[in-house]
Amino acid sequence: MNSIECRIEKVNSAIGELEEAFEAIQQPRPDYVLKKFVVGQHDTDPQRYMQCVLEMQIKYDAIRRAKLTRQKLLLQIVDLEKDGSPIDHIDARLKHIDIEAQDRAMLGAVREFEALYRIWQGFPRRYTRDELNAAQEEYWIKRLTRQANQDIQATGRIGVGNLEALQQIGLVALPALEQGAERPQIPGGDI
Q1: What are the beta bridge partners of residue 189?
Q2: Which among 20, 89, 115, 177 could bridge 31 via Cys, Cβ 3.0 to 4.6 Å?
Q3: With DSSP H G I counted as helix, E B as strand and the rest as coil, what are the percentages for the chain, rounded to 5?
């Protein structure tokens, strides 16, 4: 056995004790991250609710696709193993690896879905589309005000993008400039 084969054998022998660790880490975004940074990043309950439901929908669709892909891979394995060539048998083994990797990923997706579902259950109420639409003005005022305050704390002025957004929702009025006129000094931003 050559050096690389010896090393691969060591890797294979370590897998037994690592499988539990592989399973334990499956959840790309831990519960805390989902609660505080994915759903909790928003400034109002209706927006947090909408983000939570959207994230659950994405996870639900991913889980359903993964289940079907798993079924498809299993059927392909049967076809490859049935009177297949040596290459077909290798392809079947590769598909087994694909299933193992996908099962780990699906475990992470299920864990995220479960965490999001617990967050969703904690909302004091459910919102209709009309209520979510009606809540947008309050959300954007709070969000853009928060971002403008963060700009001021970080740089001493409101950034161009946030200043423009505040103007678009009517919170900041900028003076019109005439051609060749001296540039007025506007607190919080450049023109």
Answers
A1: 186
A2: 115
A3: 75, 0, 25
- Distance, in Å, from the CA atom of 115 to the CA atom of 69, rounded to the nearest integer, reads 24
pLDDT digits (tens, 9 = 90+) for 6-52: 888 888 888 888 999 999 999 999 999 999 999 999 999 999 999 99
- Residue appearing with tokens 């589309």: 129
Question: Over 60: is that where the pLDDT of 163 sits?
Answer: yes
Provide the token pair at 45: 């309950």
Q: Say if residues 107 and 20 touch (Cβ distance below 8 Å).
A: no
Q: 186 falls in which pLDDT band (50, 70, 90)?
A: low
Amino acid identity of residue 23, one-letter, is E
Q: Which helix (H) or strand (E) holds 36?
A: none
**Inter-residue long-range contacts of 60-66, CB under 8 Å, 24+ positions, other chains counted:** 60/113, 62/109, 63/106, 63/109, 63/110, 63/113, 66/102, 66/105, 66/106, 66/109
